[in-house]
Amino acid sequence: MASSFAARARRRLAPLVPLARRLGTARAWLVRERRRVVRALALVALSPVLFVVVLAALTPLPAELREPAAPSLRVASRGGALLREVRADDGARARPLSRGDIPAHVRDAVLAAEDRSFYWHPGVNPLAVARAAASNLWHRRVVSGASTLTMQLARTLRPRKKSLWGKVTEAALALRIEASLSKDQILVEYMNRIAYGPNLRGYGAASQAYLGKAPAELSVAEAALIAGLPRGPSLYAVSKRPVLAKRRRDRVLSRMVEAGTLDADARERAAAEPIVTALDKPAFGAPHFVRGLVAGALAAEQPGLAEALGDRTNLSDLTTTLDPELQRAAEAAVTTTLAGLRDKRVTAAAVVALDNATGDVLAWVGSPDFHDAVALGQNDGVVALRQPGSSLKPFVYGEAMEHLGWTGATLLPDLELHVPLPGGGDYVPHDYDTRQRGPTRLREALGNSLNIPAVYTIQQLGTQRVLDRLRALGFGTLTEDAAHYGPALALGDGEVRLLDLARAYAILARGGMARPTRLVRQVTRGGRSAELGPGPATRVLDERVAAMLTDILSDKAARMSAFGDQNVLELEFDVAAKTGTSKGYRDNVAVGYTRELTVAVWAGNFDGSPMADVSGITGAGPIFRSVMEAGMDLRRATKRDARLSLGDDAARLGLERTAVCALSGEIPGPGCTHRVHDWLPRGSAEHGVPCSIHELVAIDVRNGLRAGPACSRGVTEERVFERWTAPYVEWAERTRRPRAPSDSSPACPVEAAPDADAPRGAARHVPVRWRAVRGRPGPPARSPGARGARGARRARRRAPRGRRAAQGARGARVAARGRCPHAHRAPRRAARPAGARHGALRRYVSSIVDHGRACRPDG
């Protein structure tokens, strides 16, 4: 039985005998060749590693790592308040950090969250790879990637699909990075390039966006909160999932304890700290200004700015010149004023404010609402081409002052004017109220914004000369030839920018000195800051001319006839101001300055549609007033120095305040009953031409005719008459100005009665020509008796009715037109001039000097 069992076993195992023999042979071979076998197995096991190493050696270092991470551009006001953060080229907000910007607890939190073995592995952690492989095999799915911090950086720089080959190339690139950069450099690159949230690149941007702090300002809990975000930026979003974000933060704190960088007590304190976010709306201040800077459209406005901006690479910060408080005040003024003008079809306005000392732009409002598509709000009214209206008049008169010797007292005709046009026909300007005031001193013509005297002035100068002056003052958009603009250029018939208008008025504020505009004070690139100082000042206008224009523009009395004594240009401090309204009410401006500040305002519609009877005084004027008051309030300490009168500068400039005849603007003669004061060249009072309009004439009171020497003393009196030459003769007759009789009294004829129509002195239309004039001695003194007085009364009764009207007593009005509330009345009797006949009766017939009626201004 036993033998039978053994036989069966041998038969069944017989086929295995050859295998056993072969296994024995193989075992003997393995014993004999064990070293070779081990080497072969090692080679097979290490071949993937060797492949990755070779691949790493052949992989180039990403070019991005040779340059700092691109930042987003932060544009701030002069005080550091953020106006806007312009995203980098990849559309993300980024605040790159340097090694010195990363405190130890922030570094520890990042390493605890992502790679505790960062400082000892070569870019790939083999233990983590083995652990991840085992875990993935056990779960039969990918549950762990074994990615090191360096591998995450490699994946960010060179994104690839999730696959075995993608993992191999990622590991190779990680090895290449480790071979090229130090550990600290790799950590900095990681923290600057990894996504921490939607459109947030880098740890610095995330800490600023979520917590409103720089990394150096974070607590341990806050550092752990931000460090945990890369695992799932959307999953752990602080604003949307605060519970998950806190759970992730606490996990990072625990890992810091495990890594030995945080003790348990500190961990508990940090875990108890509440999450406080600072999720403000993205800054969007001064949008037109910032857009112009970032796009480079404004680079030419400041010398050296284009070079400083250059390539956007590594450009991280621009500190502008904007004053945030004045900017907000300007924006509020625009919004408030336009709300009140909604029914007047006014939809847009713009403001620019300049610091006169430095040329700094302090406020820039391009439109009321950047996002208002209906009102075309993305247009920038500060640099848009618009017609300035009467705001160019000061520069026209300034040219006449400099080249023709005019002063504020120069007499100009406000009479019907026909200017032939090259193509045929005439250009006929009109004043805003269609009145014609006749002879008008330059001070009142400019102060009341009269159109006809301005056109007359540009005729005297020539349009080309005025155009050249405007271009020299910075109006570079006036590119057409003089014939294109014609004399209407004096009334603003040309398109200019509000910024250029503000700069030109700032030249007046500086006494004729031009200074380039400064928009940016500091540029930061790659961590290095460069200061951009104010540009050099150059003289473009005579200082005396600038001073005289400033005196006129700040003279409240000079503009009272048109604007009244209470208007938006009257402030509690001295301000030189001018308004302007274009034809058809399509544009209006208000511009002015103090010693410190220049403000220019435009109001209108970007589509060019007309406003409903809105002038510069009612449209742009209120905005100007609000912004100027806000600007001076911010400079309250210097407001007491804001005087614009010539004052102590007059002597240095060769000017002196001199009495002039209110009607002729010349040195007062014996017949000038109303006098005003103006700034004239020194010595004008002693050597200037006396009044050529008023004349003293001896009249026979019995008949109102000229009295000769034979008239008895009791029947004559000296009266004041006016003598006019072209172009005022027709106006004088129409307005019934007092004119001396041409006939002599038959009772005592004049030997050679002068022709009343003969010119006795020219009205002032040309430069002042000063010469010495000898005084006129008076006749022998004699007191009139009662008979003489009665004779005078009889003569007035016998005089024709029209002449009685002209010679009426007690200052009866000569002009036939309506009463003017701002007329100056002369007294019935005046003081006896030196050298006059003693006791002679004097009746001053020129009793009214009409300086215009308070009417609606044209701006």
Topology of helices and strands:
Elements (H helix, E strand, L loop, with lengths): L1 H12 L2 H17 L1 H25 L14 E4 L5 E5 L6 E2 L9 H11 L11 H14 L9 H9 L6 H17 L2 H11 L1 E3 L2 E2 L1 H9 L8 H8 L14 H18 L4 H8 L15 H9 L9 H5 L5 E6 L3 H17 L7 E8 L5 E5 L19 E2 L6 H12 L6 E4 L4 E2 L5 E2 L10 E4 H6 L3 H11 L1 H10 L9 H4 L10 E2 H12 L3 E2 L5 E6 L2 E4 L6 E2 L3 H11 L6 H4 L12 E6 L5 E7 L3 E8 L15 H14 L15 H4 L2 E7 L13 E7 L2 H4 L6 E7 L4 E2 L9 E7 L6 H6 L51 H13 L2 H7 L16 E2 L15 E4 L3 E2 L10
Report on the architecture of this protein.
Among the domains are: 180 residues, Orthogonal Bundle (Penicillin binding protein transpeptidase fold), CATH 1.10.3810; 167 residues, no CATH class. α3 crosses α7. It has 859 residues and is of the alpha+beta class.
